Amino acid sequence: MYLKRLEIQGFKSFADKVAIEFQGGITGVVGPNGSGKSNISDAIRWVLGEQSAKSLRGSKMEDVIFSGTSKRRPLGFAEVTLVFDNKDGKLPIDYSEVSITRRLFRSGESEYYINKTSCRLKDIRELFMDTGVGKEGYSIIGQGRIDEILSSKSEDRRSIFEEAAGIVKYKTRKIEAEKKLDKTKENLVRIEDIIGELE
Ligand code: ATP
Q1: Domain with 50 in it: what CATH number?
Q2: Residue-range definition of the domain harbouring residue 22
Q3: ipTM score here?
Q4: Residue 61 — φ and ψ, nearest 5°?
Q5: What is the pTM of this model?
Q6: CA–CA distance, 41 with 77 (Å, rounded to integer)
Q7: Which amino acids does the record list as binding ATP (predicted)?
Q8: Atom of ligand 1 at shortest range from CA of 40
Q9: Which residues are documented as binding site for ATP?
Q10: With 0-12 CB in 10 A as exposed, 13-18 as middle and 19+ as buried, what is 51?
């Protein structure tokens, strides 16, 4: 699996639709200060489900939508699509090419798509779990992240190895199942109370 293409429209400084094709090997992005290099990695993290406006260098999520220039009016929505080559089947979905899209309107309404079919953010998170690609995955190493990894608590470092070992999916499912179990236990206690009152 590898990232083949990035399409950006209305996201930060990218007002017009731009498609960036990634070839095999290393791709370097060069440009003057403030030309939008970091906005490209912000776009990748955003489409993968980043929910923190601060970590996208804004104060509210709406800040990712193109806010206009002296010559151009602001836009009403931002849209980013990542296209992955999945010929090796690393992503658990029966397609050799997988696209994921996130769209955000100024109204705050948000949409997510997998292969152009509307889905939930949860579906995107689950698709990339244990691949290293997710929002918290190790495929995006931001400035200061190496220091953070080296100096962080051993439990935090462990989560990186768990993602690489492919067990995050099972841990997440276990937590969800435990929550359901607790809810069921609570319901049982309530039912027993009601039965007690009726007897
Ligand atoms: P440096 O080399 O200094 O790190 P860079 O090439 O990484 O710079 P970015 O930080 O990606 O640049 O881009 C910053 C530019 O993006 C600024 O000019 C800023 O005005 C513009 N920008 C950020 N958000 C928006 C937005 N919502 N609408 C329009 N332009 C935006």
Answers
A1: 3.40.50.300
A2: 1-130
A3: 0.95
A4: -60, -30
A5: 0.82
A6: 19
A7: 32-39
A8: 11
A9: 32-39
A10: exposed
Would you say the CB of residue 75 lies under 6 angstroms from ligand 1?
A: no
Ligand 1 close to Cβ of residue 46 (< 6 A):
no
* Predicted confidence band of residue 52 (pLDDT cuts 50, 70, 90): confident
| Cα 125 to ligand 1 centre (Å) | 27
Helices (H) and strands (E) in the chain, counts: 5, 6
Q: Where are the alpha helices (DSSP H) in the chain?
A: 37-47, 121-128, 145-151, 154-165, 168-198
Q: Mapping DSSP to helix (H, G, I), strand (E, B) and coil, where does residue 116 land?
A: coil
The mean pLDDT value for 56-79 works out to: 95
Quick check: CB of 70 below 6 Å from ligand 1?
A: no
b/e per residue, 87-105, with b = 16+ CB within 10 A?
Answer: eeebbeeeeeebbbbbbbe
| The total number of structural domains that make up the chain | 1
Residue 181 clears pLDDT 80, i.e. is over it: yes
